[in-house]
Amino acid sequence: MSFFNNAMGLGLRAINRFAGLPLVDRLRLRKPAEKVLYHGSRAGFRAASAAARAFKATSTLGRPARLKTGEARGLFDLTPSDEQQMLREAAQNFAQEQLRTAAHAADAASQAPEALLAQAAELGFTQFGIPEELGGVGSERSTVANVLVAEALAQGDMGLAVACLAPSAVSTALVLWGDAQQQAQYLPAFVGDRPPVAALAIMEPRPLFDALSLQTTARRDGNDYVLDGVKALVPRAAQAELFIVAAQTENGPALFVVESGDAALTIEADPGMGLRAAALGRLHLKNLRVPASALLAQGSAEVYAECLALSRLGWCALAVGTAQAALDYLIPYVNDRVAFGEPISHRQSVAFAIANIATELDGMRLTTWRAASRAEQGLDFMRETAIARRLCADKGAVIGADAVQLLGGHGFTTEYPVERWYRDLRAAGLMEGAVLV
Fold first, then answer.
1. What share of the chain is helix, strand, coil (3-state, %, to 5)?
2. CA distance 397 to 239
3. Do 316 and 366 touch, CB atoms closer than 8 A?
4. What phi, psi does 433 have (nearest 5°)?
C-alpha cells in the first residue's frame, strides 16, 4: 500500500499546487482543469483501491441467501413484465448510445474503454440478481431479466456486452450456489460503488473441447486443493480480481472460487476471431493452492450441469441480440442500396433472405425466452436450453454470413459492422462460461 499512498499523496500535492497558480484564472482554465483533475484523481483512487482489495466477510450469515423462484404462469406467455421491459429498454438505450459507438475502436484495440465499463457498472445490472439481505435489490430469480439485458446489450456489440456482463457471472454463481461463508466474503463487494472485475473460466485451449471432460485438475492435498491447467477465452482476464474456475476433481467437474494475485496464477492475452472487445485472456494455473472452502456447492455434479446450461442460455441471448442488430441494419441498407435503377430489396432473392433472417431470429428468441422462463420458475430447463443452443448456434452463424453476403463487397470491409457481427456470432456455438444468467 505504501506505493499507492505515496502516488496518491504526490497527486494531491500536484492538484493543490496547480489550483494555486494565478495563471489558471488568467487563461480561464480553472473549470476544464478541475474537471480533468477530478476524473484523473478519481480514476487513480479506483485503481489503487482495486489493486489493494482484500475480500473479507463484512458480516456472518447463518445460512446462504437464495432468491425464490418466479411465480408460475397459468398460460404460456413469454411477454416481459413492466419491470422487465423497463430494464430491457434501459439496456437498449445504453447499448445504442454507448456500446455501438465504441464498438469499432474497442474491437480494433482488443480492449473495452474503462470509462464505458464504469458506466455499465453504475447502471447496476449486477445488483438486481443479488438478494436484498446482501445489499442487492433482488427478491426472486431473474433469469428472464438477465436474458433480456444480455440480448439488449448485444445489440450494441457482443464483445462489449460480454465485457460488461462478465462480473455478474461470478456474482450470480455465488448467489445460486455459494455457501454462507462464500457469500459473506465476496458478494458485498459486488453491490458497492466499485464492483470487482470477475470472470467465469470454463473453456480450455484444445480442439473439440468438452466441458464435461476437463483437463484442468484439482487434487485434494490436506485441507487444500491444488489446481493445475490452462483456461482460455476468459473475458477481462488481465484485470480480473476474482475467478470461478472449472476443474476436474476425483468426483467429476467442479467449480472453485479463485482470487487473483497468486504467483501460481499467470495470465496472457488470448485474442480470438471475435469478441475482441472483451479482452480475452488465458489463465495458467500451476500448483495453485486454494483452501477447501473455495469449492462451490461441495462439487455437486448437478450444480456444474446447471452452470453450463445457464451459461449457454446467456450465449443464446447474446446471439439473439447480435442477430437483431444485423437485421435492423440490413433492412434500411437493402432499401437504400440502388442497383440497376432500383433498390436491391426489390429483388426476390434479397427480400427472401431478409424474411428468412427475421423468421429464424424469432425462433431463436422464443426458444431462448422459453428456457429462461422455465429456469426462473425452478422447472427443468435442460432440454429447452439444448434446443435454444442448437438453434442459436446454427442460425446465428447463417444470419451473420447472410448479412455479409447481402452487403456484397461492403460486407467484407471493416468500415461496415456486419463483418464484426459475423465473427462474434460464431462464438455462440462454441463458448462455455464467461456469462451466466
1. 55, 15, 30
2. 30
3. no
4. 80, -155
Residue type, 296: L
Is residue 53 within 8 A of residue 196, CB to CB? The reply is: yes
Assess contact for 55 and 189: CB atoms under 8 A: yes
φ, ψ of residue 199 to 5 degrees: the values are: -155, 150
Residues 3 and 7: their CA atoms lie apart, in Å, by 6
The phi and psi torsions of 111 (rounded to 5 degrees) equal -160, 135
Largest separation between any pair of C-alpha atoms in the chain: 78
> Would you state the cell numbers that stand for residue 110, as one nine-digit string?
482488443
State the Cα torsion 398-400-401-403 to the nearest 10°.
120
pLDDT of residue 59 exceeding 70, the answer is no
CB atoms within 10 A of CB 26: 9
Which residues are registered as beta bridge partners of 343? 338
Residue with cell 461441495: 298
What's the pLDDT tens digit per position in 384-407?
Answer: 999 999 999 999 999 999 999 999
Q: Which three cell numbers stand for residue 345?
A: 430489396
What is the grid cell recorded at 293? Answer: 472452502
Q: How many residues belong to the chain?
A: 437
Which cell numbers hold the place of 419?
A: 463483418
**Dist CA 265 CA 242 (whole Å):** 12
Q: How confident is the model over 301-328, as a mean pLDDT?
A: 98
pTM for the complete prediction? 0.86
With cell 459492422, the residue in question is 417
End-to-end Cα, the chain, rounded Å = 36
State the DSSP code for 140: B
Backbone φ and ψ of 291, nearest 5°: -70, 155
